[in-house]
Amino acid sequence: MKRGRWTARRKAVAGVLFSLRCGEIPRGLSGVSGEGGMGKETCYVCGGEIEAEAVVRHRIVPDEIAALYGVSEVKTVPLCASCSDEVHEWYHKRISTITYDCKIKRFRARSPAEIVREYECALNSFAQYQRAQRKKVKR
């Protein structure tokens, strides 16, 4: 019986978090679709224009994580193919499902809310990093 309550609680927490956090459009993404002209979109990370058929709809939280925590709706952002590959590498290096808890002085599993927040922060930090790198190259 405890297991059933835990599953229900986990789904409720994930649902509330996504309605609050992911219901909003990420910064810099408003009005993206169709902005660059007919059949073109703007990459969320690099800002480059991409043909509609070449756009990769990147899920901010991967499918396997969303399924694990019972999240039904996952927001997406448009990316070009190279940024999509780089974001996956960035996620692999930056995101962990465990964290060190100073109160209990041990590692513990992250909660669903913490993991979703971690993915969102990783995507935004990657976008900021890439934009800063491109500004350095232009100078």
Description:
This protein has one domain (2-138). The longest helix has 27 residues, at 112-138. With 139 residues, it is of the alpha+beta class. A hairpin with a 6-residue loop joins strand 1 (40-42) and strand 2 (49-51). The chain contains four helices and six strands, in the order H-E-E-E-H-E-H-E-E-H. 49% of the residues lie in helices and 16% in strands. Helix 1 runs parallel beside helix 4 and helix 3 packs across helix 4. The protein is flat, with a radius of gyration of 17 Å. The strands form three sheets. A two-stranded antiparallel ribbon has the order 1-2. The protein has helices at residues 2-22, 63-68, 81-94, 112-138, and strands at 40-42, 49-51, 56-59, 76-79, 98-101, 106-109.
Distance between the termini: 62 Å
How many domain regions? 1
* Average pLDDT number: 75
Count the beta strands.
6
Main sheet attributes: strand count, strand direction, barrel closure: 2 strands, antiparallel
Query: What order do the SSEs take from the amino end to the carboxyl end, as H and E?
Result: HEEEHEHEEH
Compact summary:
This protein has one domain (2-138).
